């Protein structure tokens, strides 16, 4: 069949480098999430999103729209108020509509992989810019990689988190 390639098997070795995990997500921050969703629908083929919205621990508000397209999850993020800097820090000031790449997302399959990643972050002197653990849902952290001008996010889903990710709308 033309255009089909056999890709190497995923080798999960987060202790051997930050990119040695299972990349599954592309995320973008925006200052107008309704407009960004419309653009993704009308121009980029995403038919439906799953919304996640609420207060952030620091007091701000976040809205996330998620959608699967094939084996890649796309995430749109808009946040405001205290704690929103991690998500909005790379957007220009002013009112002009903007979408910017925010992070690549990586899934970790188990506690051993999470521990290996934590060791790699420490050994490499990488800066974690965000961390949280919603018990029963998921553990996640963001790592700043100045060389790439975007973050890397690592997720270790627990049962409810895995069920949520599997239930995200597919286009």
> Over all CA atoms, what is the radius of gyration?
16 Å
SS field, number of helical segments = 4
CATH architecture: Roll
Shape: globular
Unreliable segments of 5+ consecutive residues: none
- Mean pLDDT over the residues: 94
Structural class: alpha+beta
CATH class: Alpha Beta
Give the total of beta strands: 8
Order of strands, main sheet, comes to: 2-3-4-1-5-8-7-6
Largest sheet: 8 strands, mixed
What does this structure look like?
This protein has 171 residues and is α+β, with helices and mostly antiparallel strands. It has one domain: 2,3-Dihydroxybiphenyl 1,2-Dioxygenase, domain 1 (Roll), CATH 3.10.180.10. Helices cover 23% and strands 39% of the residues. The protein contains four helices and eight strands. It has helices at residues 33-44, 85-88, 111-124, 159-167; strands spanning 22-30, 50-55, 61-69, 72-80, 99-107, 127-134, 138-145, 150-157. An eight-stranded mixed β-sheet has the order 2-3-4-1-5-8-7-6. The longest helix is centred in the C-terminal third of the chain and has 14 residues, at 111-124. The mean pLDDT is 94.
